[in-house]
Amino acid sequence: MTDVSVVIVSYESRELLARCLAALAADAGRIATVETIVVDQASQDGTAASLEAEHADVHLVALPENVGFGAGNNRGAAVANGRWLLLLNSDAFVRPGAIDELVRFAETHPATGAVGPRLLWPDGRLQRSCRRFPTVFRLATEYLYLRKLAPRSRALNGFYCGEFAHDAPRQVDWVTGACVLVRRELYERLGGFDETFFLYSEEVDLLYRASRLGAETWYDPAAEVVHVWGGTAERASALTLEEQARSHVRYLDKHVSRAAAGRARRVLLAGLRLRAPRSAAYREAARWLAARPVEKLLAGTRPERRGSG
Fold it and tell me: 0.90 exceeded by the pTM?
C-alpha cells in the first residue's frame, strides 16, 4: 500500500507547481512510497496540459471551476491510496528527507493525527508556522499590533506561539496548511475539510475538529520545507484580506458563538482601518467589511466578484 499521497491544489500557479514537483522528485526513492495527486482548479495558464505532457506519473484531477482550497483537497483525497495524506501548497518545496521524517515522526507518536514541518523562507530564514486556535483576543493581538509590544510573550503573541523558538518538536494547536501530514483515517473520519471555508482557516477548522476527537497535532523541525507564502495568492490584495476576515468570522461562529463572531468582525474592521494608509487594498477591504454584518459574511462561501459592493 502507498505510504503517502501528496495532494497539491493548483490554481494559476504553473511555474511554482513545476518547482514543487521537482522538489518532490528529488525527495523520492527513500523510505516512504509516495504518489502525487494534483488538483487543478480550471487554471488558464496551461497547468493541465503541462502535467499531461511532462508528468505522466502525476495523477491529475482537472476540475471545471475553482471550488476552493479545502474542497480541492477533498477532491484529491477522494482518489488517494496512501495511509497518510501530505497536503502541500504548490508554492511549497520539500527538502530531501522531509516526507520520510514526517512519516517517521508521526508513526513514533501514535496519538498524532497531523504533523507539520519547519517552514523556511526562500532565503533560509525561519517562517513561523505554529499557532494557537483563534479567539477574539488573539485576533486583536494580531490585527491591532498588540503582539509587537511583546513579540516573545505568550500573553500578547500567543496566536503565533511567540514564546516558542520553533527549534524543537512540540505539540501545538495547529500548523499552517502550506505543508501538513494528516492521518488518512482521521481525515476521512472528519469528513475532510469543511467546504464552506473557501480560502483560509480551513486547516484551523480541520485540526480543531481533530483535537476534539483526541488527535494530536505536532510540529517537527527535523523536516524542512521552503515556502514562498503568497506565491499562489497576493498576500495583501483586497480579495485576500476580505477572505481572511470572512474565514476568521466563520470559524468563531462555528466553534465559539455568534456573539464572538460579531466581536471578531469589529476587531478585524478596526485592524483593516488601522492599516488603510498603507495601501488601497486595505482601504477597499475595510469598506467591504464595514458593509457586511456577520449574517451576510456567513451567507457567502465564495469570494464576491469585484465591484459587488
Answer: yes
